Task: structure prediction
Amino acid sequence: MSKAAELPELGGRQKGMARPLRLGDDLDERALADLADDIDELQYLAGSQLQRLRTARLEIERTQSAFRPRTLRTELAQLRSAENTFRDYEQVLGTCLHDILRGVGGVERLRAVKNEYADLLRLQQGISSALIAGSDWQSPAFDGAGYPTAGRHAGVITEHHDDYKRDRHPGAQSFEQNYLREYVDAPTGLGVRALATACGMAAFTTILHFLCSVLDKKKPVIATRGMYHECRGLLVESPLGPRIHWVEDDDTAEIKTACRRLEPAAVFWDSMCNSKGLAVPDSRRLLLDLAESSRSDIYVVVDNTCAPVFSQPFPVAAWNRHVRVLMFESLTKYAQFGFDRVAAGLVVAPGPETDELDRLREHLGTNVADVCVAAVPQPNRALLTRRLRRIERNAGLLSQHIAQSAERYRAPVRVVYPGLPSHECHAAARRLGFYGGFFALDLLHEDPSPVAQGRLVSGLIQSARRHNVNLVTGASFGLNVTRVYRTATEIGLGPFVRIAAGTEDRMEIEDLKEVFTDVVRQLSARGHG
Result:
């Protein structure tokens, strides 16, 4: 008997609408409210993937004459089995939410439910995405006799358009439309379009190839020093490299002056930097100035990976048709709601550019794979915003605690986080409406080398083991468990130790504070030994 069968099926609470449980102010009650939100999010993820499975099954049933009988039976049986699994998960999570609203179940039980079903859903997300695309073809036929080799897309494939999935495919097009609807604010007249790619770097290389072919070769380009190091490296090595004028991310006046004086063909910046210093360019003010001053076309390339939803450049850019925003994002981070299941990315651009970007995506081979797009959770702005707020809260609580502990114990460590008033970009981050989901630790008086940074990371993990606290070391961010990571040593601005906050509940954050306090004390002892 499944777990769902042991519990009554619930109705009445609409899933995925970001309605947090409002309780009191003590830690236990705030943790309960956090866990209610987490379980609501998981129920949405289960329900949305269930809908994808149903859609795939209905498409196969509609085109069943295109399948050999045994293949048809096998595919439908596996899809129905997967539907039952996700339906069970959805029901269990719904029952758990109902229990919370009735005051049944403590923090430990709910935390166990969150962790168990986050793991199960992540596993099944990968399996179900393969099932959804299981009978598809990478080169689906658009006509023929007998059994057409097109799977569930029989009869809807267009010659020279989507008859080769490296070029484009229906799954990506559906996701692109959902992404635009949920995550992008843009005036209708701009004709903004989204193009899914194999990863964030594939999105950037598509944009870079486009710019290398269309920019005025006599004009310079401007780039901020804090842009993501791999994008920075490709930009330097590209034909645009000799024309780059570098500016500081946190110096809005310098960027404005450079744009007015040089009249560049393009400007590159990250809406929130994932590089040493964690700078936050004042995107809105920069775009306002460009909208006021630009008299010829200028492309503004914005990496939106670290501040999705909050950074919305298109409404301001629409004030001046010369300002052409090309926004991109790695969907491997926040957009996967902690699943970290596949690599994916996305470009968002105004109408006149999208046809050429689409063509380049086809010829560069940067399109997203069909299985990958089926594994990225369906966009939901309310839930993503709520999730980002949790991660931001946790980053803020931890960074503030470490900063206070470092001051108390006179430890040689500095906390770098845009949410702290001491950060150079605190005001810009406040105007953005998001302080970010990660912070950095700078070693001061002792050796700040990568070796010392590695010792700091190891010390944090050892402390977590002593305190029996879940803390991991690894790349990326936006996951459920807080991560500590020494970034790559080849980064242009230098490596740094990044703490990427997870979605821990309010009580778990108190446990993490103890882990960091331990290490701050150790640093203090070494600094004064």
In short: The chain has a mean pLDDT of 91.
